[in-house]
Amino acid sequence: MTVEEAFRRGRKRHEAGALAEAEAAYRSALVLAPDHQDTLKHLGVLLFSTSRYAEAADVLAKLSQAAPDSAEAQNNLANALVALGKHDEAIAAYERALALDPNLGAARSNLAGLHFNRGLALVRTRHAQAAQHFARAIAVDPDRASAHAALGFSLHALGKPEEALASFRRALGIEPDNTEALRGFGIAAQALGQSDEARRALERAVALAPTNPSYHRVLSQMKRFIPGDPQIATMESLANDPSRLPEPQQAELHYALGKAYRDIGETRAAIEHLLRANTIRRRTVQYDEAGTLGMMHRIAAVFTPELLAEKGGAGDDSSLPIFIVGMPRSGTTLVEQILASHPLVTGGGERTLLSEIARSLTMGNVVFPESVTLLEAKSLGQAGRRYVNALQAEAPGASRITDKMPMNFELVGLIHLALPKARIIHVIRDPVDTCMSCFTRTFGRNLPFSYGLGELGRYYRAYVELISHWRAVLPEGRMLEMRYENIVGDLESAARQMIAYCGLKWDERCVAFHRTQRPILTASAAEVRQPLYADAIGRWKDCGDLLAPLVEALGPLAAR
């Protein structure tokens, strides 16, 4: 049998769905001609379609070597690398494909989707690697305080605040005045609800290093300033001589001053400092606005009523997950804390798993969301089972587990198909208050749209459009929508509504959410440890001239 005959036999069996026979024929062809490009391509696609990603990557890597001028080969290899979580290698392969063929739409779309979705997953991988590195360093030199502190930061980033706090304690046992260990101790202690210890640690860090803006910023999130607070004067003296500080530290200082002036009611001064902070931050991040907003438009175009009807009915029937979605800083942490105060609800925090699963839903060269149109309904059910299995592995025996990744608002349609019995709670807050709350915080590179008022407003509008789409295509009652202002105004009624929607009996502990002791790793950790106050509602409305880019970008939404 010649190589062409073996290849044609493989194609025929492949098209007939006889995958084992097709694979055998393809491999027979490669014995005769190891670099036969058509065979490598089709075998790689077959292996990829059966989730044998490592084998697919090996075959497709051979194809990319055999056909170095093929953009399609590079794109196929990149898809396999994405499935394996090798994002940097995948990006390099996509970029090689685009260098060969700038008009290869599949590669450009896939690359945009990878940049859009990789977010926290990549950061988590890096922190896991860092934790291993620092653990090895400590094994060699157990008396090195800086290594214990560095391990603590990695563990906290991995969602392990208890272990992180222990590492910071060990660092401070070796070196009591280590300011980085004090900062880390404060962050971890705050996440665990140990607010007094957290604040004392940061106050000591500031006292030891009063010219370090990072310590001022972290402390500012743990306290409420009053007029005449000496920390404000210290920070202002630093701000008066910006040449003493590198730009990242200047940004930290202006965020802290923004919080201080907001607390004491000087809102215009607060905004001025926040504008300076975010202008600096914006220079340090790359943001593909067209790609980001385009992703939301693509999702809406794919998840039509017809697709939901066609692909529905095969999802996993678990009622374990409760998804809490919305814009960042809209009140999602508050909702999770209320729900997690119920004895049958486990607070899961912000998880990247759903976006990782969405990213894995590929069909040949087609990635999410367009790939959903090609998937069988049972594949979506398998995706739901994968998600539930991961939850159960982390919290065995739990009745309900929350996932409060706000950005899952993009994936509501996927949730509906893959997990039809999962609860979805969408939290809505005043548009200006929401955007300005984002503007008061630094999110690193995770929310690049949040550092410019115009970009922030346009992102909010795209979010509203996508949420409106979900309202239109989902069955009535499928998604519960809660207004932040209503929760603050009548906590018990709102809490009862959410608990009932989740299919649970009422428990009074839900209205005493601020007393619930559980790790909270988001920017709202300090806020949800306190009873509700209404002073965050509408505080920015009188400063419209300073917020003109935001108001213009929001358009009619700014008047809500």
Roughly what fraction of the amino acids lie in strands? under 5%
Structural class determined from secondary elements = mainly alpha
Overall shape: globular
Task: Name the assembly state.
Answer: single chain
Task: Say how many strands there are.
Answer: 5
CATH topology call of the domain at 311-559: Rossmann fold
Major β-sheet profile: 5 strands, parallel
Could you give the distance between the termini?
Answer: 73 Å
CATH class of the domain at 311-559: Alpha Beta
Low-confidence stretches: 116-122
Strand order of the largest sheet: 2-3-1-4-5
Mean pLDDT: 88
Give me the number of helical elements.
26
Fraction of residues in H or I helices: 55-70%
Question: What Rg do the Cα atoms give?
Answer: 26 Å
Jot down its keywords.
5 strands, 560 residues, globular, mainly alpha, Serine Threonine Protein Phosphatase 5, Tetratricopeptide repeat, 5-stranded parallel β-sheet, Rossmann fold
